Structure formats: C-alpha cells, structure tokens
Description:
The complex is a heterodimer of chains A (167) and B (415). With 167 residues, chain A is α/β, with parallel strands linked by helices. Chain A has one domain (2-160): Aconitase, domain 4. Chain A has helices at 16-19, 22-25, 31-35, 46-49, 70-77, 90-99, 142-150, 153-160, and strands at 2-9, 55-58, 82-85, 103-105, 116-120, 125-128, 133-136. In chain A, helix 5 (70-77) crosses helix 6 (90-99) and helix 7 (142-150) crosses helix 8 (153-160). Chain B has 415 residues and is of the alpha/beta class. Chain B has two domains: 23-259, Aconitase, domain 3 (2-Layer Sandwich), CATH 3.30.499; 267-414, Aconitase, domain 3 (2-Layer Sandwich), CATH 3.30.499.10. Chain B has helices at residues 5-14, 38-48, 71-86, 99-105, 137-146, 171-182, 197-201, 204-212, 228-237, 280-283, 295-298, 301-311, 329-337, 340-347, 357-360, 397-406; strands spanning 23-27, 30-34, 58-61, 90-92, 114-118, 131-134, 148-152, 156-162, 191-195, 221-223, 255-260, 267-269, 277-279, 290-293, 321-324, 349-351, 372-375, 391-394. In chain B, the strands form five sheets. A five-stranded parallel β-sheet of chain B has the order 4-3-2-5-6, with helices on one face. In chain B, helix 2 (38-48) crosses helix 5 (137-146), helix 12 crosses helix 14 and helix 12 runs parallel beside helix 16 (397-406). Chains A and B meet through helix 2, helix 6 and helix 8 of A and helix 2, helix 3, helix 5 and strand 7 of B.
Amino acid sequence: MLLRGKAHKFGDDINTDYIISGKYKFKTLDMNELAKHVMEDLDPHFYSKITPGDILEAGKNFGCGSSREQAPLAIKFSKISCVLASSFARIFYRNAINTGLPVIECDTTGIESGDELKIELEKGVVINITKNETIIAQPLPSFMIKILNDGGVVKHFQRYSDLKFNV
Amino acid sequence: MGKTITEKIFSNHCQRDVKAGDLVIAPLDFIMGQDGTAPLAIKSYSDMKPQYIASSKIAFVIDHSAPSPNEGVSALHKLMRDFAKKNKIQLYDIGEGVCHQLLPEKGHVVPGDLVIGADSHTCTYGAINAFSTGVGSTDLAVAMASGKLWFKVPETIKIELSGNLPYNVFAKDLILYLIGKIKADGATYNAIEFTGDTISSLSIDNRFTISNMAIEMGAKTGLMEVDEKTEKWLAKHAKKPYQSVKPDPDAKYKDIKKYDVSDLSPQVACPHTVDNVKPVEEVEGTEINQCFIGTCTNGRLTDLRVAANILAGKKVHPEVRLIIAPASRQIYLKAMEEGIIQTLVKAGASIVTPGCGPCVGTHNGIPADGEKVLSTANRNFKGRMGNNKAFIYLASPATVAFSALKGAIADPRKI
Lengths: 167, 415
C-alpha cells in the first residue's frame, strides 16, 4: 500500500475526546457527519484544511482515552489516509487497524505541517519529500497488513467468515 | 521460564504455551458492549453477515446516556434492545447501572477469565483476577460473531505497594498518585500486576477503583491476585466455577516498581490530564462550582458511605451543586436501606439515575463555561463532561464530599 499526502502536525497525548468529542458520538452513526467535527476542539477549521490523502502526524500516546471507534473512523472518513505518531494508545491502534485506517509508529519529530510525505506501508518506510529525508519505522505484522489490505476486519470477516492469521 | 498472570491466562485460553509478545487468537469468556459502542458494533456485525452469535457470553448495558436525553440516542437504544431481544442477549437497560459495576456484580466475570468490553475501563475486572480489556466496536462485532479475538500478549509491569493508607486517604488517592508518577503513557501496551500488603488491606470495592484506572497509564489491564477477601466477595456474586491465577515466582516482568504509601496525601488530578496530579495541599482552596460522586471508579457502596459520613447533618455549600450517581441499582437500594441516600439528599445532593451521564458529558450535569468541577470520575480531559470550556479536577469521594461542604477543594484529613 502506497500512501501520499501532506502532513498535519499535532502534539503529544491527543486523546479521543479531542479527535471526536463525546457529545457527537452518541448522536449518530453517520461517519461522514462525524468526520466534519474531527479535531475541532484543537483546530475548529481542521476538516476544511484536509485534502484527500493527507497524513495526520503526532507525538506520543496518540488516541489515548476512550475506546470510541468513532475516533479512527472520523479520521478515516475525513479522508486522512494514514496516522503517524511516535507512539499510540493501544485501543486506538487496534481500532485503527480494525477499521482499515493505516497507522505507523515512527519518529515524527522532524516532520512539519505541510511537508509532503510518501509512505510504503508494508516496508514501514516514510519518505519526507519536502525535506528529502527517509524515516524507517517498525513494519506492521503481516496479519495487520492483511486486515488493512482487506479494508478492515469487517471485510476480512466477510471474506473468510472468521479471523485468520495465515491466509 | 515462569509466567505472569497474563501469560498464564492466555496460555490457558489458547491451550498452548504463550509468552509476552506473541500474537494470538483466543476464545473469550465474556463480551460487553455499552450504548456508546454497541450500536456501531451491531452495524458492523450485520455487515459481516456471520452465521453465529456468541449470545450466552454477551451483555449489552445502556448506561452512557441513560435515560435517553434526545431522540437520536433513543433510536440507538432501540437498536440495542431490538438486537438483544432477537439474538437472546442479556440486556441491562437504563437504571441498572454502570457496565463495569454490573458485570462483576451480576457474576458474569470470575478469576482467570478472558474478557473484552467495548469500553476503555473494562480493565476494572483485573481486581478480581480476570484479564479484561477495552476494545472498540469492530472488535466487539468480531467477538460477537466468533466468540474470540486477536491479541498481542502484553508484557507486565509489577507494582508493589506497601504500607497502610493514612486517615481519610483512599484507593483513589493511591491510583491517582501512581498515574502522576507513571504518566498517561507509562504502561502503554502493558499489563499491570498490583501487589503488596496495601492491596491486601483494601476492600474489593476499593480494588476495583485501582484496576479501573490502569488504562489512564495506558495499560491493557490491571490485575490482582485472589485472596480471602476476593473469595468472600465472589461467594456472593460469582455464577460460575473459577480457577484463580497466580504469577510464578520467577515470572519475567518488564519492570518492577515499589512504592510505600504510608505517608500519602489525598491526591487531586488537575485539568486537563489525569496524570497532572498534585497533593491536595497544593490545590486546597480552589473554588468549585459542581461536585460529582459516582462512576465506574467511585460510585460503589463504600464510596457513598464515605460521602454520607462526611455530609451527615451538614449542608452543601450554597454555591456548589452536588450530583451523585450510584454505580448500580443494587448499590442504590442498599444505600437506601442504610439511610445513605436520605443523608445525602438532606445535605443537598441531587441523586441521578445509576449510569455514566455526568462523567461522559451526555447529560445530568454539564458544567457552564469557565466552571470548575471536582469529580470522583476517572477522566478530566477537556470537554469530557460535555463542555470544553470547563475545568475538571479528580479526587476521592472523601475529598469531593468535604470540598462540597467548603465550596473549595479541601483536605479530608482535616475533618
């Protein structure tokens, strides 16, 4: 999977309440509607700044807090193609893989907002085209790549009628 | 090589030797969804078109917006009720209580179990020796459709606690202190084992408070061993046989942390992160507008009793609203039998339906812009209580009750 887009930088400990406020998640299952409110407590106009394929980038412990899957879904439906962070909170990480939102744990300190990035997901390589730098990340386990390539665990399940590690 | 509690529970469930770091697909003993997460799981489940549903192992709890505050939520609640009825799933409707109180209270979870819940505070049942962890809605859907889930077996951090907690210092102060030390991401991807004579000295209610907040350090679960107190508690609640799990003496830990809590002060988590923890002395006198006692952290009978003892025969400060939500109907009833509810209401408290509402900002006490709230909940993120211009402080039920009388954050050791 090859991803390309410009970076939007956020800080450390971005919790799920910031990603999508709890007050919206109980109201609707319409993800396109939720996506309009993505990150709005940190940047009220964030949604309008996204070009499809853009990449969200953050520091440590991205997605900490509640288990709301509306967090990765709001990001995914806002047309962000991938989240890079120096570390992720574990429930967010699971939810991202399960819903088909690529996530990569890597050193994000040198990436700035607006940098053009290219990501080779299977290899775990992030290329900062603007700065002419290459960041090597820990590649995702093949099982997770499989789920992402299937389009999330729901589609994986539709295809195999079960959870399968080795297919 | 010895094993941690986590490695043993996963080995038992996978019927082979597994160790930290292994990626496994494991059968689950119990599966929970609440009204913030189950609707999306029902949608995913339906999209998956599965042939099976693990009905007997599932419970749905309507607690996050209960009773429904608007028609959008009502539709989601109806979706849950209809799905549960059709698929013979146990549903705990409005007023039954908070999911993390109900699952152990109703005997759905016992020691040695592997449990998932689509709620981040599912780690609570670690206090009764179950590996329980929070997941999202799609994980819940997969679990419902297959009775199992994928896991990376986590490494374990052991936290050894020694010393008796001082007068009017409680389990909540202890866990806030630990979060302040270990920080919000200090245990990410890891399991925690809480051990030591401090844990032995605590009631099961108080142990739940500690395990409940393991997630606030990023942990996957917060486990404790079974002792006589646990056995006694389980004798009243457990509905199935169980085998408790102890770590091996030579188990391999990622880290071992030791704390003596004999001199611990009451602790307060300050806005807007749970790990922004200060001893009460540093924030004493901070004026507050609203107090909240309840939640899966501190809405248990022990907590209400502590609050009632402090509020008995007194009046809440005229400029403070005190909102109280018992964690379950059973707790509510017991608190009524003991006269606790009467004491609290006489003191000026508003009792709301057992559930999550105020904590998660869906209804029942949303603060105004600029207001300060002192709460027994587990999160104080910006916007958590439904207003991102409010300020939330977290403390023990004793600190909250005493502060409600004073109109400002107060030190319960001065009672």
